[in-house]
Amino acid sequence: MRNFICIFMLVLNYYQALPQWAQSNTSATFRLSDASFTGNSTVVTLHDKYTYLSADKGESFTQISNFSGNTIQAINDSTFIVCRGALISYTNNKGASWNKLQIKNISGDTIYKGDILFAHLYYNGKAVAIGDIYNGDSCNNIFLSEDWGISWNRKKCENIQITYNPPPQGMSGFLNNRRYEFGNTLLLNSFINKTKFFVVSDYGNIIREVSWDSLIPNFSSIRDHAFKDSLNGIIISGGNVYKTNDGLKSIQKINTPENFTLITYAKPTPSKPKGFYFASCPNGSYTSSDDGANWNQVDLQQYLTAIFNNTEQAISCISSNGYKVLYFTGFSSIKENDNNPKLLVYPNPAKDNLYIDDANQKGIYDLIDIHGQALAKGNIESGKRNMISLNGCSNGLYFLRCSFDNQTSIYKVIVN
Fold it and tell me: CA–CA separation, 155 vs 132, rounded Å?
C-alpha cells in the first residue's frame, strides 16, 4: 500500500523536461538594468547609479564607476562604453579611469554638444550615434564614425524623419536599453518615441523606422522584445505575444501558456548548438526552441531582467525582499528517460524528513526552493533508504533534483 501511494504521488508531482540553471554564488543585491559580456568570464553591468564589473563568472562584482547610463557595451575584457546623457564615457583599463567621448570632426572640433540618446560601436571600429531630437530636428543629429568614435561625420537622412513625441500614457519604460547587433545591422528601440523602432543597416548608412501601431492591432504599448537574428524576433505587447520572420515588415500573433512580461534570446554555442527564447511572467519562466511554437516551463521564478550572452552564460535580476543579481553559467535540458532510476520519494507532503528509496545506483540530490536556492545537498546511496532533514524549511513548495550520471529527475515536494 505504501509503495502504491508513493508511486501515485511521484507520478502526480513529476516534472518532465525542466531545464536547470547552474547558478554561481554571487551575493550582489543591486537592480540590474543592462549588461554586456566578453568571453566567458567578464561581464559589465549597469545599476540605477553605478557600473559594476565581474571578472570571475559572477562570483563577485566590483564597482568601477560612480555613474550609470542608458546602455553599456563591452568591446573586450578591458574596454567598456557607457552612454549617459550628453556624454559617451569609455574606459580601456577596466574602469580604473574614464574618458568622455564627444562628437568631434576629424580636425578635433566639437560638432555636437547635445545629449547622446544612443551610441553603438561595431566590432570593426565603425560606430553610429543618435543625438537628442526636438522640434523635428532629426537629420542633423545622427553621426557615423569609422575610427572607434574618435572622429564623426554628420549623416544626412533623406528617407526618414525622426521627431520627438511624448510617450503615450501608460507606455512601458522597460525598453530604454534594448539593442541587437547582427553583422552590419542594428535593431534598437526608439529613445524619443516609444511607438517607434529602428532597423539600422550598413553600419548606420540606412535607417528604417518601424511604427508599432501600424503592425500591432489595437496597439497600446510594448512590454518587451527579443531577436535571434536580423529577421526573426518575438514581441510582447499588452497581453499578447507576436513574432516576425521578415525584420518587422509583418508580424503574426502566437499562443503562449502565460501573459509574458519578459522575453530574451540565448544564442547557441558549439557545446549547446540549439538556441532558445527565454520568457518570464509572475507564474514562472519558459523556454522555446522553435520560435515560440511550443513553450516548456523551466522554473517558478519571475525575472525582472534576464540578459543572455549565449546558452551557457546569462545574468538576471529578481526581487525578493530587495533586488538580487543571479549569474548563470549553464543551462541544461533535463529529459525524461526510461532508464532513469525508479525512485520512491516520500512522504509527500512532508514535515520533518524526506526519504529517497530504491535507487539502483549512486547519485546526488539537491533540495531547491522556488527562488532557485539549494537548501540541502547530499549523496544518494544505492539500495539504501536516504534521509533528507527538512529542519529549517518553512512551509511551501520545493524541488528535489536527483542526478545519476547524465540523467536527472525532478520531484515537486510540499513541506507543511
Answer: 14
